[in-house]
Fold this sequence. Notes:
By secondary structure, the protein is mainly alpha-helical.
Amino acid sequence: MRIFLYYEGDSFLHRLNPLTKLFFALAVLLVLTVIVDPITPLVVAAVTILTIWGLGGIRAPSLGRALAPFALVAMGVLWTTTLFYVATPGDHLRTLLAFGPIAFTDEGVAYGLAIAFRILGVFAASLLFVLTTDPTDFVQAVVQILGVSHRFGYGALAAYRFVPLFDSELATIRAAHRVRGAGGGGGPLAWSRRLVGYTVPLLAGGVRKAERVALAMDARGFGAYPTRTYYRRSCLGRNDLAFAAGALGVLLLILGSLSRLGWLGQLIPPFLK
Length: 273
């Protein structure tokens, strides 16, 4: 499974309307943006990952591979934020580790963890949407429910369909270069030559494919009338209501429990002070 591509299945999350999952991801993004502490995003990320695994049918190894790049980004943000954390005047910092002039303080580590876990939480919610949502169903929902112009929606879908085609074409171009013995050597100059050798045929192939798609859409009368009919109807059902109510309930339960424990919004939880 490649990142940012739909993982085909027939789970509970797959059967939900795409807009329900999109609004869930936006709600998680809003909550994690407003609240700054390390515990809340960690719990939200963990619950979201368990939801993708349990209700989405995404196997643990595939989910781990999808999350691995974001975990690396979070680790990079963690150590840089911790290292360059600037305290506000009046803060009483406790040094946890020091190497000469470099010191890691308790607030610096806590703030770095808060940002890192926030990244994981946001991307976990995004993966819940991306891995379980067919792009065609998403376009249908956006056009039929939100009223977005079908010209824009189907045009964007056609462009998205080019992504896997470009992936296979790039592999073909690389294989052709290896057969011809071109693109060898190392260093910046050889790398730039390979980049040009890959980019030019990819761009030419993309232009040809776009032209064919445009001619095919015109031949079928796409956009000839202001309104159109649909083979598949996109609507919100009972499963969407149940998921929205359950997600809201779990989110409120998490926030309420952390608030009762005194951990919500606390950069350093009381039990670590």
